[in-house]
Request: fold
Amino acid sequence: MMKQACTLIITLSLVACGGSSEEPSAELDGFEGVRKAAKAQLRGSSAPAVSIAIHHNGELVFAEAFGAKQKGGKEPVDKDTLFQLGSTTKMFTALALLRQVDSGKMALTDAVPSVLPEMLIADDQQENWQKMTVHDLLSHQAGLAEFDGSLHENNRLLSFTKDSYPMLYGPMNPPGLFFNYSNSHWSYLGALLEQDLGASFESLIKEQAFLPLTMPRTTVSRSELLNDGNYALGSGVIIEGDELVYGSANNLNHIPSSELGIPAGQFTWSTPSEVLKMAEFLLFGNQDILSESLRQEMISPQIGLDIGLPISYGYGLFISDGFNDSEGNWYATPRLDHGGNTPAYSSMFWLLPEENVAVSILSSGAQTDFTATMMAALRSVIQLPPAQQVPVDAVDTSLYENHVGRYTGIFGPVEVSLSEGDLYVSIPDYDKQGITYQSRLVPLAASYFRIVFNEGRDKNYDVTFIPEVEGGESSYIRHREFVLLREE
Reply:
């Protein structure tokens, strides 16, 4: 396995490479709190390793990694070790697509079928597809249902999005109405790139995003990763034979990948230092990469999340008025961010534009939480505003009557009723199957509620009631995995 040379980063002193037993003291560089938090959270997680980089006032001021390249291994990671990004790739895919808009190859208002011709679309979905635009895909407003990529392993990205997906899945609701996060949107953006530029997504994302941002080692290609040699093996869901099991990888064949590009970009490999090249671009711009007007569109709110918090989505980025730490404290300074998870890796990317600071944290563990490390990283270079209570919109009981009605979707009919000031839900098909749930909807914020399932069910559903006209009768019940439509 090829080792990368350890380069030195200049701050107030020289920062040591991850894995070294000789660390600078806090008096020398001020990052001891970051190291302590990272090591503590690493010990408490399933991840064999974590890597952190901090960008402040136009400079990379910190980059270190902790842990081993595989669970129980002796070879340490370093700041140049590659980890998977998961959905943090979405901001790079958005950039690649916006570059095509910049060059005039397509427009944000173009209907998807016009940019991706010869799609096989079911007759009853023609209207929804024809209304769907490139803007809707970039802002998670196309209403596309998630899909199980393992069911389509014989399809390439372009053929899958043109021939298979429209007949098997399609929009759950008319496009352009509300935000609903789905990886399918990003597979379609990848397909648009392939259709327009006539090459594979893995080569195009490198050509149109990674290399313009000077990220030479970032890759979606398994062969490039093997040639590089400096990568971390993760823990979480791995491949054993033909099965997915919980465990820790001891070779790259244990790590799930998508050579077919479905979903597009999920299995990108990078380092925190290279990820922060995107932060530099988002902060300062570069018209050789993207026009200033489209950069501004990328970092501007395009649609609210409707979960009772001041959070919106731009193009490939979440945009919020503030953020909370792991203790539930809220810090009122704007943030751009995008996390990511793959079966065996996790990613955090935070950018505070008013503070000129960005942090990338990558770990080789599934669903790991390094929020305390993120907060320590921010505090190592800036003073955060005073902590406040999280500004959650109060539950709007005046709209309860608007939510009452009969809805249909993947559960069959769903009845929502109002009794003594509370909303209740009835799911007859679940009742027949013996799936038990609490009939009272738990109010969380605004028009955001939780359906609580009893023992034997592995998750609850947080749903939002959404009207077509503000203040009007609710037309949809939205969850990431489904949308229920009101019956007329």
